[in-house]
Write a structure and sequence with these properties.
The chain is an alpha/beta fold and about 475 residues long. The chain has 17 helices and 21 strands.
Length: about 475
């Protein structure tokens, strides 16, 4: 880690050349003559930027048993990338190199950094609770499997890790989410859990069930030595107050990581600063597409502070110049630290307002703080022009603790969005394009039931936060009527 902090550009160049060298005799490597590539300029000139659809045929062939297509070592595992509720799943190839040198390395580095920051920690004496995916590993053919990334990671854990992990594998890999939560709540309450890893929304469901079963007021009555929650997948700010209420101690620490089916990209390396260190020596080469009119592609050497970039990766599992769909910003260039802004398809720009997830999370967190409300789940979409009326944003929110006055909540949310986003503020001017947002409070359980109908409970499945169309909002409103 010290090497890439001191020499980040050199480390990234070495990663790229090593990836190219290992893949030069693959079908893909021969197609683009990897043997003759000597620099990033050669690579970028020769290999086009890809998305999943571009690589789908090759991935299908690997899934069907062919090897040496995109990557030199045999691919036996495929992570079912869920993301938000889009109705479409991707099977992302996972190589042994990406498991060992990326995903596992990320976990080890996060724990090492945590112990460095907290030298008196007793974390290692307790158990690790993994709130993972709800999908069993499914056999594609002999020796080939697919499932949630968390299931693949757990299935391949070394013995020394498995001895410290709860719940037992038969429960952890259950595919019926509601029964799994019940069994996890029963079995893990008897363990000495010192740290938890999972997506905040699903972890809260488990913690509340544990409290119900044990008639306890807070989680420290169950796990007195709990000190760390490692989270990722969604922005943490809307959930933080709820965790602090369930775990009422100043000794509890919350560390974020940026881990996806495609790789482990970043981790929080400072206790009080939530930006994440971009991990440069995990077998991933990064490029960045500027999210402005230029759409210029730059390497780490060309990035600037506070600009929004779409992440492009080349990996040690055979994803070449692959667009992630995630957008990030750099908060530091020495060392390179990032924050995740959102997803390319997770925004509202129906009227030129360019509302991104970061704006939404900050404004909602502020509105909750001002009204003493707590949010459980939410989504938002535009209401387009109706007759002579201007448009508006419609927010569907399921509160853990609703505000006393939803109109006041809407006003505070609106004012914060204006402060955070000048495009939104312009469109709200005199109500000419956008009216004040409409906030609808959904009864508890509607989002859960909606996710259940889509077989999207648990693991890394996420409610889509912002959308340019009304598909999700209309489905939820229809469900809320019953």
């Amino acid at each position: 880690m010290e090497l890439f902090i001191k020499y980040p550009i050199e480390v990234q160049n070495d990663v790229l050349l090593e990836l190219i060298s290992k893949a030069k005799n693959t079908e893909w490597g021969k197609k683009y003559d990897y043997k003759s590539i000597k620099s990033y300029q050669d690579y970028s000139n020769r290999v086009p930027i890809q998305d999943y659809e571009c690589l789908k045929d090759q991935i299908t062939r690997i899934k069907n048993g062919e090897q040496n297509i995109l990557w030199s070592s045999d691919i036996k595992w495929f992570a079912k990338s869920s993301g938000t509720v889009t109705g479409r799943s991707k099977l992302i190839p996972v190589s042994k190199e990406s498991l060992i040198n990326c995903h596992y390395k990320g976990g080890k580095d996060l724990l090492a950094i945590y112990h460095h920051n907290h030298p008196t920690s007793k974390l290692i004496l307790g158990k690790t609770l993994v709130v993972g995916g709800s999908t069993q590993l499914n056999q594609l053919k002999k020796g080939s499997y697919y499932g949630d990334l968390s299931a693949i990671i757990m299935k391949n854990f070394p013995v020394w890790v498995e001895q410290r992990r709860v719940p037992k594998m038969s429960i952890a890999l259950m595919d019926e989410w509601e029964e799994k939560i019940e069994q996890m709540a029963i079995s893990t309450a008897k363990e000495d859990v010192s740290n938890i890893s999972g997506v905040p929304s699903w972890t809260l469901i488990l913690l509340r069930r544990i409290l119900e079963l044990n008639k306890a007021d807070n989680i420290l009555e169950i796990w007195p030595n709990l000190e760390l929650f490692m989270h990722g997948g969604v922005h943490f700010s809307p959930y933080q107050s709820q965790f602090q209420k369930l775990i009422p101690t100043s000794n509890m620490n919350y560390y974020e990581n940026y881990n996806a089916s495609e790789g482990f990209f970043g981790l929080q390396d400072q206790s009080e600063v939530k930006e994440m260190l971009l991990m440069l020596d995990y077998g991933i080469f990064y490029e960045f597409i500027e999210q402005d009119s230029t759409k210029r592609v730059v390497t780490l050497e060309g990035v600037e502070l506070d600009k929004v970039y779409e992440l492009v990766i080349s990996t040690n599992a055979g994803l070449w110049r692959y667009k992630m769909g995630d957008t990030i910003q750099f908060t530091s260039l020495n060392p390179f630290r990032i924050k995740v802004v959102g997803r390319i398809k997770n925004f509202i720009n129906a009227f030129g307002e360019e509302l991104v997830i970061e704006n939404a999370e900050k404004a909602l967190s502020y509105a909750c703080a001002k009204t003493e409300a707590e949010i459980k789940e939410y989504t938002a979409a535009p209401v387009y022009f109706e007759g002579n009326q201007s448009g508006k944003h419609q927010w569907l929110i399921e509160f853990e603790k609703p505000p006393l006055d939803v109109i006041d909540f809407s006003r505070i949310l609106d004012n914060q969005l204006k402060l955070l986003n000048s495009d939104y503020e312009t469109k709200r001017s005199n109500n000419l394009v956008l009216r004040i947002p409409e906030v609808n409070i959904l009864k508890k359980g509607v989002f859960y039931q909606w996710m259940k109908t889509k077989n999207q409970l648990g693991g890394q499945h996420k409610v889509p936060r912002l959308s340019n169309n009304r598909q999700y909002v209309d489905e939820l409103l229809k469900m809320a009527q019953f």
